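Workshop exercise sheet. Pairs work together: one partner reads the sequence aloud, the other fills in the structure field after running the prediction. Swap roles for the next sheet.
Pair: D.N. / O.F.
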Amino acid sequence: MSKYVKFSKKLFEQPKISGNVDHRSGSEQIEHWSQFGKMVQENPDLSFSLICEILIADQEPVIGQYVLS
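Structure field:
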């Protein structure tokens, strides 16, 4: 379910720029940062690189499942 949130243009510029690196929209980048921040808060002992690996693995399809487009 999508919800609309208003941001100032100035605040929304950084996620648009950062999102371009990983081919994400500004909204997708904000969602990515939100997931990352939540994981950091819940697991303060995990390293940055380990959290990145977990988030990447979480997006990969499970072996034996097909992704339909």
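Discussion prompt: The mean pLDDT is 83. What would you look at next?
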